[in-house]
């Protein structure tokens, strides 16, 4: 079986690498990027100094590159932190630029710091990347002949302008992102229940999991000092929490292969519209008298949405506790130090190579290395290849601009087009992002002042050298890069599933018990969704890691079906169906624990006794299928890297 999968996987790694994420174009982000980057250039040209406009536009780049969807307060923290970090890095680069003995140690140190602070979370990771990128860009600005304080002042003006653009609508659209996230959950519920075949319903269930995770993340990170706005957050969170029974019953309905009544689907769509319009949820339809337990649970879930929940306010963790947790993750997380060491080494090599290349402003080599090797952004091989492909395309665009004699208002128009392309590339594909960000930065920092064909050639050579350094020292020669790192993650996902089985198959007589069960379900589905994302990042590699990710893929699908089967049984509890005995649940959890142990220990799972209970037959069948999937491919072929497996318990993400 493993040979067949190897033959299938190898030709598809490039297809997977070039595949674009099928998401709608974020037109609001496109508009903000165009305004933030093109307006300073247009004003500068109108006032007779397009070079100054380009420098101010550069200050707007951190906000554009860090932009993401989410609550306004979350975005303010993310964008503000990224912009401040970029300013610090830019200043460090400016004061050491032109002095290799000073700039090289500073760039290497900033690279190490940016890798280490990535362990503190997504916002810290983005801030660390911007600090590194603009430190490197700052080292090349000494050739402009302007004083450090003037260059930094232009940068700060551009940064302030871009932040204003990004957050200008906060005052009158304060809760729109959260409201849209909750409404999207009901849209995905309707889509899942409308699916006519298993494959479509499986994809819809994945999208529902993503929508639920997004909604909870946005609401739990949205806090405001305005009482009225906070009341809206709490109302939406209560509504989302009250939807849990309906979500569970819908998953159970789909897992049983049954079609939901049309009035249920219409009700979910109407509820979504009501949430967007800030209106009360519509009255739920009445359940038919002959409804079976699953269908009755679905109609009861609709009624629960209308009633709402009353969740206790979550305590906000103080900053010093978050700082202590981050420091603890560094001390006990060898993989973070491992990634920081790799990034630091490759950046140091890039800085030395940049001294030997006969091109002006060869900071692009170091820039390429740092962006590709960012420790928490997926496959190093995939990012290196996409960066190379995207830059070749971007340099071709830059060459076309020069050939057309791009200047003046044409230059402003091109900056606007490239800015919009960056916003699209951020959500679609890293290669698309590289293809647009390359000519954008070339025009901002090079062509606006030099207009030389040599710049295009230099950027192409620099990028090729940077990708070569990454592929050679950060991938081919780096210990463990081409070995699988997926088995340990799969075992961690199984641990979450074991906890859900333990909580999801027992009666929950109290509200606290029901809340704990729903939390266990969300953690299990989130862990499986994160696992699927991690495998999709690895599957693009042509090495053993990519082949092994493909070989493990049926196991992930099997575990998702186990979770769905547990949800189906849990929905029927308390509606006439008795709860399974404790010893029967213990047999299921023991079987899943054995599966996790077998994956960690690189062996076939042992035969495990299973409960003989018709009520649990669906769960038993799916666990058996998961056992078969683990025994299928060669475990040696899929074995996780021992070093990584040993470190994984200390490197789990929340």
Automatic annotation (TrEMBL):
Family annotation (InterPro entries): Memb_transporter_dom (IPR049453)
Protein keywords: Cell membrane, Membrane, Transmembrane, Transmembrane helix
Organism expressing this protein natively: Amycolatopsis thailandensis
Family designation: Belongs to the YccS/YhfK family.
Protein name (Swiss-Prot/TrEMBL): Integral membrane bound transporter domain-containing protein
Gene Ontology CC: one annotated term: plasma membrane
Membrane topology reported for the UniProt record: Multi-pass membrane protein
Subcellular location: Cell membrane
Domain Integral membrane bound transporter, residue spans: 350-473
Top-level taxon of the source organism: Bacteria
UniProt signal peptide: none
Record-annotated membrane-spanning stretches: 79-100, 106-139, 151-172, 337-359, 380-402, 408-425, 432-450, 456-478
Broad class of where this protein is predominantly found: membrane
